[in-house]
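so i finally got all the pieces together for this one. its two components total, 586 residues if u count the protein bits. some of the lines might not be protein, just check the labels. i wanna see the whole assembly predicted at once instead of chain by chain like last time, that was a mess tbh
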Amino acid sequence: MAKNFEFVSKDQKADNEQIRPSLTYWKDAWRRLKKNKMSMVGLVFVVLIFLFAYIGPLFTPYTYSQQQSDYINLPPKLKIYQIEDNVNVFMSGQYYLLTTDDTGLLTGRLPLSRRDTINRIYYYWYGDEEIGVDFSYRVLDPDGPIDYAILYKGATIEQPTDTVWNKAYLFGTDDIGRDILTRLMYGAQISLEVAFAATAVMVLIGVTYGSISGFEGGKVDNIMMRIVDIINSIPLVIYVILLMVMLDKSNLGTVILALASVYWVGMARLVRGQIL
Amino acid sequence: MNTYIIKRILSTILTLLIIASLTFFMMKAMPGGPFTREKPIPDEIREKIEEKYHLNDPILKQYVDYMKGVVVFDYGVSYKELGNTVNGIIADRFPTSLRLGALATLFVLILGIPLGIVSALKQNSWLDHAAMFLATLGVTIPSFVLATLYISIVAGKLGWVDAFGLGSWESYIGPVIALMAYSLSFVSRLARSSMLEVFRQDYIRTARANGLSKFKVIYKHALKNALIPVVTYIGPMFASVITGSFVVEKIFAIGGLGEFYVSSITNRDYTMIMGVTMFYAILYMVMVMLVDLAYSYIDPRIRLGKKAGD
């Protein structure tokens, strides 16, 4: 019997001991996150959105409120009609005739000279020359292939010569001439701030509240969950209006407060169900 | 159990009274009133109107009058929808929202839970990845984007269904998809994660080691316990979905109840606010109660109404 067990020598014992430092909680979490491809893709996207929101504005020449009254409601892609070398015209939704170069960079707006309302032709000044835009096609044939034609120096251009990206405003402009890309970046900043703050508050309050309620049970649980029900049943819009009145302003803090003060309720119910 | 249910019903009624009182005082605290206009109406006319609707009574008297109505489910006449009682409007609009909401909930149940279970069983397979990718999309894409995309593609470009209204059975597809996308994705994620959690438990390993078939282990032993978070979510979701969604009903131009949850407040239509809030609150409280009862059916260890350790 005794032979089945032998004393271990010191060297052998040392071999079996762990030399590697044990993984901390965060290291383990990070290692497991790295293994999951979907999560990593998600992480990369979150980082990209952060870069877009916070680093992006450094690279745009516009501010979020800067208006260009000539460039209203521009699409991201421009249908341009070539009239001369490296000079193209683009008809905007406002009946503004804009000039661009061949790459799609906007160079200016041509002033209106006169309107021939009988033949439905608008004339614009290009230097001393007049450029006409003939809108009669749509009237004569609503389903036809031609939207309008450009009349310049006796030539009639019926089809766009090219479709190019709007280089100056990559995502186009809104109805008062602000760059949509820039506004998207600033909007993303606000959304991210609200989302992170509200989620942090939601998890903090919701998990604590739900665990206490579920763990205690009985009367405590009943009262705590009825409070949750009360908060959940009163419409969110009333809270928001009252918060705005009470705080006398509507800024980011109000939005976060309003969302956080209501959304933790769902989290509390989920956690309570698990703890019960 | 029976004493618990009776106690629970009593506390639910008390909670509903508190909700009614809080809503009443909060909505009265909001600036403006149902007859406030950008162009002020003459004082005599305003006084006459307010007298007619008892709006210039002392606030406590108004409160008592309101509560008398609330107790017998009589919310009075709407200030904005002239000539209609609040009850009449709810009775008129609710069936539409109920049909849509019930369909959406049904699909969430019969699609969401199995999808979550299958993804959990085949964790990290292509099926799991595909399902979770769709679920992520469903959670992140807002319902108004889904609804407008659906209208522009299926109703516009393809022309398969009407763009608005609920004229035929096909026209239910779009609103139901827009209504259920978020919940469906959320439920399948919940089901998947709690199923994975349960699979790691000792009793599942014991059951397998004792030679029970995989099918039996999943459906008899694992599923019930995994359902707790799902049930927690689905109960209140059902209440909120059948009372209609403001966004979905606006986009598909469906005359449901959903729009009143926003418009009544912006219009300061006091009786309507009370009516729709209490209507939702009652449904919600009933669902919450059913969920709590379902807990003790799903997991008999949960004994409601008792302190931990009793």
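The radius of gyration of chain A is 33 Å.
Chain A has a mean pLDDT of 84.
anyway lmk what u think
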